[in-house]
Amino acid sequence: MLVLRTVLLFVLAALAEIGGAWLVWQGIREHRGVMFVCGGLMSLCVYGFVATLQEEASFGRVLAAYGGVFVAGSLAWGVVADGYRPDRYDITGALVCLAGVGLIMFAPHR
């Protein structure tokens, strides 16, 4: 159950952070307006809160592991939202990052 909770919280954090950053990008770089930027900023705040819900007590460990989720999630977001086509190096890199997430969060630490 702990693994499922950890994964779900990482997915929620990724949706909030990547979605927030995408909204800010759309608002500024794509000239979609201040409402996109404000929505993005609110979503980024939600990300900060969701990250605190992880069971792991170490801020550094949680954020380091989340970095791998962010890499893979960002590529997936690009595919869905922007039609991005990752190449084999993107996919391999994302898989390496996700393997790192597994090691950081679930390996038996001292």
UniProtKB/TrEMBL annotation:
Mind telling me which GO cellular component terms the entry cites? plasma membrane
Membrane-spanning intervals of the chain: 32-50, 62-79, 91-108
Where is it mostly found?
A: membrane
Q: Which Pfam families match?
A: UPF0060 (PF02694)
Question: InterPro entries, per this entry?
Answer: EmrE-like, UPF0060
Name the SUPFAM superfamilies on file: Multidrug resistance efflux transporter EmrE
Can you say where in the cell this protein is located? Cell membrane
Name the membrane topology term. Answer: Multi-pass membrane protein
- Coiled coil start-end: none
Going by the UniProt record, its keywords in alphabetical order are:
Cell membrane, Membrane, Transmembrane, Transmembrane helix
Q: Which domain of life is it from?
A: Bacteria
Family named by the database record: Belongs to the UPF0060 family.
| HAMAP family on file | UPF0060 (MF_00010)
Task: State what protein this is by name.
Answer: UPF0060 membrane protein ynfA
Q: Organism, per UniProt?
A: Candidatus Protofrankia datiscae
